[in-house]
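subagent[fold] <- orchestrator: predict structure for attached chain, return tokens only, no commentary.
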Amino acid sequence: ILVAGVVMMLRAGAIAVAFNGALFVPLIPALSTAATVLGIGAAILWFRNVQQETPELQISNPLEVGTAIKLAVLLAVVMLAAELVRRMFGGVGILVVAALSGMADVDAVTISIARMGGGDVDLNTAARAIMIAIAINTVSKVIIASWIGNKKVGILVGGISAVALAGGLVV
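subagent[fold] -> orchestrator:
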């Protein structure tokens, strides 16, 4: 879960900057800090694991047509929602869409908001929206870890994730 968080943060930063280079300054230091904390936490847990059990993972191909169609539909819905809410409520609406979208996916909202940043949405609001989506997605991962794992797993993942998100805010 922690490694997935690292990958998600780095991927979201790369996507945001690819779509809008001006987001580099407000996003990359915070995302790098948070990803580093998650990575250190994951490494510590990995090396402290005395059981060294390897659970069976069922990984599907992310390039399957069904997965691609679902991502395309999600992207279209998020882009439409972001634009409609921006027109009705301005920057606050964008933050709400980012929070709601972050529960399911970060990539779609990152693409949508990065494209709007500096134009229809000021860069600070765009960066804040992307960070909110990432924070909500991280909390979702903590909830899943607690539910699938146990209380100890939830506390460990939650604690490390909280420190990572706080570190990202401080930078």
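orchestrator: received. Logging for downstream: The two ends are 23 Å apart (CA to CA). The mean pLDDT is 88.
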